């Protein structure tokens, strides 16, 4: 089969398909044109905007000198509770658990010693049985209620995929001023 035979066969196939092929061809050309004129410029603009936002975030997060870091550290230390008032944050964590429908039957509290630090850390560990949504409500409420509280770890376990109640171990770190 020569090239001219192939061309004649191709031309015959196109004529045989008629108007549906012509309509499909026009729609394909319109789609390519719309992509080139509408979608691609919008994608380019979106990419440029993302780059601008990344650069802006990079500038805001860039170190602003030793004075700014020192001021942030002092503001953090001022926001911490004192050792005498360390039971209040624990009470807020327990109240947040009760508000989420959880019972904290026991908890472990221990001080983490770090030599001559301005800030002391206390580790609060709670074993609890709860559903995942109740756990999320408790964690969100506890972290909002106590700014000096940090979530260190969560351990989730259940015996089967159908079981709604989880065996959970939550460990928080509470920061307080040292020697206050």
What can be said about this structure in brief?
With 180 residues, this protein is an alpha+beta fold. The chain contains 5 helices and 4 strands.
Compute the number of strand runs.
4
The run of helices and strands is HHHHEEHEE
Biggest pleated-sheet summary: 4 strands, antiparallel
The separation of the N and C termini measures: 96 Å
Strand content: 15-25%
The percent of residues in helical segments reads 55-70%
Record the strand order, biggest sheet: 1-2-4-3
| Overall residue-averaged pLDDT value | 82
Structural class assignment: alpha+beta
Instruction: Give me the Rg, rounded.
Output: 32 Å
Unreliable residue runs? none
The general outline is elongated
Number of helices: 5
Give the key terms:
four-stranded antiparallel beta sheet, alpha+beta
What does this structure look like?
A four-stranded antiparallel beta sheet has the order 1-2-4-3. The termini are far apart. It has 180 residues and is an alpha+beta fold. Helix 4 packs antiparallel against helix 5. The radius of gyration is 32 Å and the shape is elongated. The mean pLDDT is 82. It contains five helices and four strands; from the N terminus they run H-H-H-H-E-E-H-E-E.
Compile the SSE list and pairings:
Elements: H1 3-17, H2 19-61, H3 66-79, H4 87-99, E1 108-112, E2 119-130, H5 132-145, E3 149-157, E4 166-177
Antiparallel strand pairs: 1-2, 2-4, 3-4
